[in-house]
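fyi for ur records
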Amino acid sequence: MKKELKIILIVTIGCIVMALTDGLWQPGYAMKSAVKIFFFLGLPIFFLRKEMTSKLFGLKKETLPRLLALGLGIYGFIMSAYFILGPYFDFTSVVSGLEEQLGVNASNFIFVAVYISIANSLLEEYFFRGVAFIELKSLTSRGFAYGFSAGMFALYHVAMLIGLFDWYLIVLMMVTLIVGGFIFNYINEKEGSILASWAVHLFANLAINTVGLILFGIL
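which gave:
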């Protein structure tokens, strides 16, 4: 099998499995994380270990201030959007959905938030940007790699969002995720490292988790 087809198949299978896990199985967060680690990290390493050619983890020190500024800007944007638009939406279903579907509650949310911000974001960057974009771009057209990576990144989140938000918020989030996927791809392409987009992704997750802390009444 050609390497590009192998990458497309691995990414597609990983997203389908996680969609079924989130939408149908709905195990606790620890089990869900174990499944994601297997399909987002274990599967690519096992099947592509002899074929990965890109250097995914290099980062130039001079880019750190720029990435920090961009990350803080994204954090401020998300928090501002929440405080401006939050009063117009009912987020009670988000809290109840997290408790019922994932077993996430006020007592364990801080641990989950730390894991999501640091480890989970790096795992997603390796899968969606390292494998589905950087590696795929070396084998296919630039446009296809951009679209495939960003599209799969957005679709992967659909099952997680269903049941937590109203449909119009899900559509808005999907558009935002696709745009975010393109931005992350551009950052990786420019800096040549998934650590670049991970730094920005980390701040985006920190903002989302800050909102979670507010919704759970921890802040």
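Residues 3-215 form one domain. thats all i got for now
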